[in-house]
Amino acid sequence: MAFSAAAASTATAFASGRRISASSPSQQQMLRHSAQPLPFSRSAFPRAVASRAAALSTVRAEATKKSVLIVNTNSGGHAVIGFYFAKELLAAGHAVTVLTVGDEASDKMKKPPFSRFSELTGAGGKTVWGDPSDVGAAVGGSASAFDVVLDNNGKDLDAVRPVADWAKASGVGQFLFISSAGIYKPTEEPPHVEGDAVKESAGHVAVESYLAEQFAGSWASFRPQYMIGSGNNKDCEEWFFDRIVRGRPVPIPGNGMQLTNITHVRDLSSMLAVAVENPAAAAGKVFNCVSDRAVTLDGMARLCAAAAGAAAVEIVHYDPAATGVDAKKAFPFRNMHFYAEPRAAKEALGWASTTNLPEDLKERYAEYAASGRGEKDMAFDLDDKILAAVGKAPASVAA
């Protein structure tokens, strides 16, 4: 299920031709057919796709096998990035240690992706837990044991500096950082591309500046947006499924034509892996870590309905101010145009996206259905407040 005509029209209206990178026919064909389930195998990570196989074949063949430390957050949507990145590296023959913040006995570790860490250790990876402020103690040695360090935890300089300083003091060859596309200032000319104005007060910006000073040409930063994928523990597509499977209306703020970017996490991990294997190409650069297609908020609801096998979905638009509801609490995405383009990754790394949102959402719905979440009791108090405010009776179906 592709963009609707209305969504495509909106995309054109809000993005200049100069800033839209149209996919070639071969890339479009690849995007339609590339999404596959993700068992642990080399073939499960479709990085050598047709559109960039030629450009990367020499790099992949000659890439030195490296030892990589991933400092991974223990919560939030970014946690799954470290998990997929580790799997990608292990499949390519690299050595991987994952340092997860906190305690292995924590209840957080009972949830994915942490509950699936046996997939990493079973492939030869190492998993440890500890405090990144004393990363040396946590990993039991000097950073000289690692060629590459990825910080997928800190959101400000206080959190990242201890890891960065430890890595620099030990002569680590490459330092990578997971930043956020949320640091861009709103623009009249979406999508965001690397070099657009950022919010100087954002913690991620201070980190990027510090890394540029400390690591010169041996650092790179990656700015993701929303992501999906098996093992993700942050509700995005599940929010839509929760309503669709119960026959409830889906309340969406605004007119539903706001554009956003939703990327399968395998795209994020493949971009990071290419940077590890071709550090010269990534040196000192910032990358929007996103797919190359946007989707409207209404379009996301319809794609989720299609993935769930629903014949239709009822969408209810509302004005958050008029209904007295905080859209940040009532809806999983920003109530605005918010999407970026992976221009730098395409140009510098020869990377290409494999996200196929309609197919990837089918994978996510299969996991949702298997979990039994659709049969659980669930309250929709904010939804009912919105529905009442716009003159619709709260849904009478089971909540």
How are the elements arranged and paired?
Blueprint: H1 5-14, H2 25-33, H3 53-62, E1 67-72, H4 79-91, E2 95-101, H5 118-121, E3 126-130, H6 135-139, E4 148-152, H7 157-169, E5 174-178, H8 203-215, E6 219-224, E7 226-228, H9 237-244, E8 250-253, E9 259-260, E10 262-264, H10 265-277, H11 279-282, E11 285-289, E12 295-296, H12 297-307, E13 315-318, H13 320-323, H14 327-330, H15 343-349, H16 357-371, H17 381-389
Protein name: NAD-dependent epimerase/dehydratase domain-containing protein
Pfam families: Epimerase (PF01370)
Organism: Urochloa decumbens
Describe the protein:
The protein has 17 helices and 13 strands. The model is unreliable at 1-59 (pLDDT under 50). It has helices at residues 5-14, 25-33, 53-62, 79-91, 118-121, 135-139, 157-169, 203-215, 237-244, 265-277, 279-282, 297-307, 320-323, 327-330, 343-349, 357-371, 381-389; strands at residues 67-72, 95-101, 126-130, 148-152, 174-178, 219-224, 226-228, 250-253, 259-260, 262-264, 285-289, 295-296, 315-318. The chain is globular, with a radius of gyration of 21 Å. It is of the alpha/beta class and 399 residues long. Strands 3-2-1-4-5-6-11 form a 7-stranded parallel sheet, with helices on both faces. It has a two-stranded parallel sheet with strand order 7-10.
Radius of gyration: 21 Å
Measured as a percent range, the helix fraction is 25-40%
Q: Main beta sheet, described?
A: 7 strands, parallel
Percent strand equals 5-15%
C-alpha geometry: globular
**Strand neighbour order, sheet with most strands:** 3-2-1-4-5-6-11
- Can you count the helices? 17
What number is the mean pLDDT?
Answer: 87
What is the helix/strand order?
HHHEHEHEHEHEHEEHEEEHHEEHEHHHHH
Quaternary state of the chains:
single chain
CATH superfamily: NAD(P)-binding Rossmann-like Domain
- The count of DSSP E runs of length 2 or more, i.e. the number of strands, is 13
Structural class: alpha/beta
CATH class: Alpha Beta
Protein name: NAD-dependent epimerase/dehydratase domain-containing protein
Organism: Urochloa decumbens
Domain NAD-dependent epimerase/dehydratase: 76-289
